[in-house]
Amino acid sequence: MSHSTSKDAKDNAKWSKEEERIIIELMVEQCKKGKRKTITFTFVGCKEIQRDFIRKTGCNYIDMQLKSKFQKLRSVYKEFKNACKQIGFSMDPSTKIILVDDDVWEVYVRDHPNAKNLQSHGCPLWNELCIIFGDTTKIKDTLDAEGWVPQIKTLLMSTKLHILGWVLHIPCVH
């Protein structure tokens, strides 16, 4: 696959699912190394992400394309997080797809057009996005002993699960 590296390309890179998975994996790696202490990565962290991405994919995206992808991932994170907070909405823990009645979803998407694909495609790398965009003050301690992002584990433990047409509320266990 040929990717443009010119300045004219700006943020028009075409990202495959595999390239997206790799860039997210590299960002998580940098978070765990402590190279994201604010809302962005350190200079060294950015360069390591770019270097490793090129090494793993052969795609030589320019800085602007990588920054654009970072912003797009942040938008997906915020939109998914917001949807999960809505009354009557829940998340399928295995597929990371938003579960809600179709008529409710139609109304929600009218007000949140960027959320359109969350019900059909979900956010399969949600746990990883929580590491990248979650609380940046505790990034090194993000995963608990079982490998869960604590906020996600809490969300899953307190979410409503749709089973055979019934809505069950499973209380959070601490």
UniProtKB/TrEMBL annotation:
It comes from Nelumbo nucifera. Coiled coil: none annotated. Pfam families: Myb_DNA-bind_3 (PF12776). Residues 14-108 form the Myb/SANT-like domain. Signal peptide: none annotated. This is Myb/SANT-like domain-containing protein. Transmembrane segments: none annotated. It comes from the Eukaryota. InterPro entries: LIMYB (IPR045026), Myb/SANT-like_dom (IPR024752).
